Amino acid sequence: MRSCAMPEPLRGFDWVDELTTRYKDLQDKTVLVTGGATGIGAAIVAAFAAQGSQVIFIDLPHMESNAIKVIAALNSKAEKRPVYIACDIRDTHALNKVIDRTIETFGRCDVLINNAANDERMDTLSVTPDAWLDSFAVNLHPVFFAARAVHAVMAKQMDGVIINLSSVNTHWAPPELAAYNTAKAGVLGLTKTLAREFGEFNIRVNAISPGWVATPKQLNKWLTKEKEAELMSRVRLKRRIEPQEVAKLALFLASKDACMITGQEFVIDGGRF
Predict the structure, then answer these.
(1) Phi, psi (rounded to 5 degrees) for 31
(2) Tens-digit pLDDT profile for residues 182-239
(3) Distance of alpha carbon 94 from alpha carbon 136, whole angstroms
(4) Rounded Cα gap, residues 185 and 204, in angstroms
(5) Active-site option among 13, 15, 180, 212
(6) Does residue 180 have an active-site annotation?
(7) Which pTM does this prediction carry?
(8) Which helix or strand (DSSP H or E) is residue 95 part of?
(9) Domains in the chain, CATH or no CATH each
(10) Which residues fall within 8 angstroms of residue 40, CB to CB, at 6 or more apart?
């Protein structure tokens, strides 16, 4: 199993010009995003870059072409050029080195967004031990180790935000996603644990649980016309969730407007029932 999507068509970032809220406190913040070359992650990179943050995003080496496209597309929209670093987040030692290098280079880390994920489908009875462990190695383990790696600098700053991407699948448990669903449920438990333990250092930790977001990967692989019609029958808001809508929620949670919110899960799914 791969730890990220294969390169996908890059969507434009014209929507950043229409952002209705400018968070002045995000100006010049250092923001680290995992899985930032595609989908939701790329939208998060764009949203923070448009706020004047210095964004560093991590993705797999084979995602470099997508990462270059993201950076190029933001040239006229970002005050500070985003920085891409190649890393397989399943390698905890390599992940720690990337985070340490980021802190050494920029002197701080204000926001960590644990976005990288792999939602490959597999029948439950066909899941091998290696496939199960690999899902956790992508979807859960790096969330813990990345958060622990930024703790020291955030504690020194007495200020920091960690946002973990979970999934509404933890509530609805769709089939063929046993390992993914379980790992994402673990992200929610970890979010509450870290919020409790890091709170004395003014580090806020929250989780975002998106519904079925219409990224190019999802549209190419799983979100067929039939599946989308079924989905629309189960949500109150009858339209697709776009990646930038998740990114906008991340902006709010990272801002001072959310300064007393921690240990919470925020569902963005169009009102599924």
Answers:
(1) -125, 125
(2) 999 999 999 999 999 999 999 999 999 999 999 999 999 999 999 999 999 999 999 9
(3) 17
(4) 19
(5) 180
(6) yes
(7) 0.95
(8) helix 92-106
(9) 23-267 (3.40.50.720)
(10) 115, 165, 210, 213, 215, 243, 246, 247
